[in-house]
Design a protein that fits this description.
globular; single chain; mainly alpha; 4-stranded antiparallel β-sheet
């Protein structure tokens, strides 16, 4: 099938392979980035919006500037050398694309084919049908019964999906492609302007993740734990492996509600990968007893969503932006009830 995508679509979806060819034709270079003000400004806006709002902001009218700014934004993100910013930006690009892919079906199919999807029209059951292996790959992190393979319509190795589900799976593909492009440890000999912007972006990210929060109530009530913390705590109790962000979230949350570093160390002793010296150092660093003396808080909810740590959301989660805020509000509710 001939691609239904136009040059304007390549500006909308600059992560596509065909868009990459257009970027090459524009002869964009790292050295010229800082001197190309419209591109540089739009690239900064992309990354800042990603950090603040998990989207890449409004497109500019000039398609060449818009598509070049995507390449420039990747350079800025890599320059931060910050894994959280990299994941955040990849998610923002994917979510922005998701919002733009609502119609028409021909464009969705063309974007899917850019990722080598086995995709076709899904009549008479659904909008599309895609290969079984593609479905499994991209739905692996999806929660909820609506994503279980047993609940899908299948025929001859193809999974039938409506438009919304297909776009959601494409969002995963986009996120993974951008993460792969950002998987660079560093770019050498960057212009000073780029290094300076990278430092500003790191500071902005730190503000969003947060390092301080108001004093917690003195009495610890596990019934007030947010769902994500309950899930991490249950895994810890069963000695299940926790990701780095999961362990940091659980540790910083418990430190902030009053658990002592010694108590946390005892909890982690049950882990199969327990290393007393390293674990004690990490806990004490988070608790502000080492290093700069800063007592770290756990990441806010949007960060936990980015890393797949947010689980089992309940009604209260909808009005909360931080696990510690959830704990405060739930504890007050329990005490007043």
């Amino acid at each position: 099938m001939e691609s239904a995508l136009s040059s304007e679509d390549f500006a909308k979806y600059p992560f596509l392979k065909q868009a990459s060819k257009q970027i090459e034709e524009l002869q964009f270079t790292i050295g010229s980035l800082a001197s190309e003000k419209p591109v540089f400004d739009r690239a900064q806006e992309r990354v800042k919006k990603a950090i603040l709002d998990v989207n890449t902001g409004e497109m500019v009218k000039d398609k060449a500037t818009e598509i070049s700014s995507f390449a420039a934004s990747l350079i800025l993100v890599i320059a931060t050398k910050n894994s959280w910013i990299k994941k955040r930006y990849a998610l923002a690009v994917a979510k922005t694309a998701h919002a733009q892919m609502l119609k028409p079906k021909e464009k969705i199919e063309s974007i899917a084919k850019d990722f080598n999807w086995d995709i076709a029209e899904g009549k008479p059951y659904k909008d599309f049908r895609i290969g079984f292996s593609i479905y499994l790959k991209n739905s692996a992190h999806m929660h909820g019964s609506e994503w279980k393979i047993i609940n899908q319509i299948m025929d001859k190795g193809m999974v039938y999906l409506n438009r919304d589900k297909c776009i959601r799976l494409l969002q995963e593909e986009i996120k993974q492609r951008v993460e792969k492009r950002l998987d660079v440890s560093e770019i050498k000999n960057l212009p000073e302007e780029i290094t300076a912007i990278a430092e500003e972006l790191i500071k902005l990210a730190q503000e969003i993740m947060g390092q301080e929060i108001e004093e917690m109530p003195k009495v610890v009530i596990q019934a007030a734990f947010p769902p994500c913390i309950n899930s991490l705590y249950a895994d810890a109790a069963k000695s299940h492996h926790l990701s780095h962000i999961g362990r940091f979230t659980l540790t910083s949350f418990l430190v902030n509600i009053g658990m002592t570093p010694e108590g946390l160390n005892e909890m982690y002793k049950t882990f199969s990968d327990y290393n007393e010296r390293l674990t004690r150092y990490q806990i004490e660093h988070i608790a502000g007893e080492r290093g700069s003396g800063t007592k770290y808080t756990c990441p806010q909810c949007s960060v936990l969503q980015t890393h797949g740590v947010c689980k089992n959301r309940d009604a209260l989660c909808g009005s909360i932006y931080h696990p510690l805020r959830y704990y405060q509000r739930k504890q007050k509710s329990l005490n007043s009830g």
